[in-house]
Amino acid sequence: MSLPDTIHKAEVIVIGERRSGGNEAFAGGLDRKNDYITLTVSKVLKGQGVPEEISVRSWYGMCPYGIDIDKNQPAIVYLRKAGTYYVAVDDGCAEKFTPMQGDKVVVDKDSMALADFRKLYGL
Asked: So where are the chain's domains?
């Protein structure tokens, strides 16, 4: 699914940083409790009522390899609410996240200001 389609379909879009869980949690083998990452949310671009810290299903049942955000690196993450936690749009078969470097959004190896990204995609 393309980035514009993912943005349209997402219920919630946040700028967040992974604080725990994720790829380093799998070093000892798969463990169901490590199927989630904790994101600290610094800004909500779409959606309402998003807390400052959220649990996101990150691995099990995801297409193809889950949400693999580097720890403590900001990213724009495309989600939908699923009970008490969040999941990626289309269970990860769409765009999962867009990385950021400082205050720039990196799309297809090109950087742009967050304001330009928001304007381009109607956020």
From this structure: 3-121
Within a 13 Å sphere around the CA of 27, how many CA atoms are in the beta-carbon half? 3
Q: What is the mean pLDDT of each run of 10 residues along the chain (123 residues)?
A: 93 92 52 73 96 84 69 92 88 85 90 95 93
Q: Which CATH architecture has domain 3-121?
A: Beta Barrel (2.40)
* Strand duo 97-101 + 53-57: pairing: unpaired
CB hemisphere CA count around 4 (13 angstroms): 4
* Gap between the Cα atoms of 76 and 68, Å rounded: 12
Instruction: Report pTM.
Output: 0.86
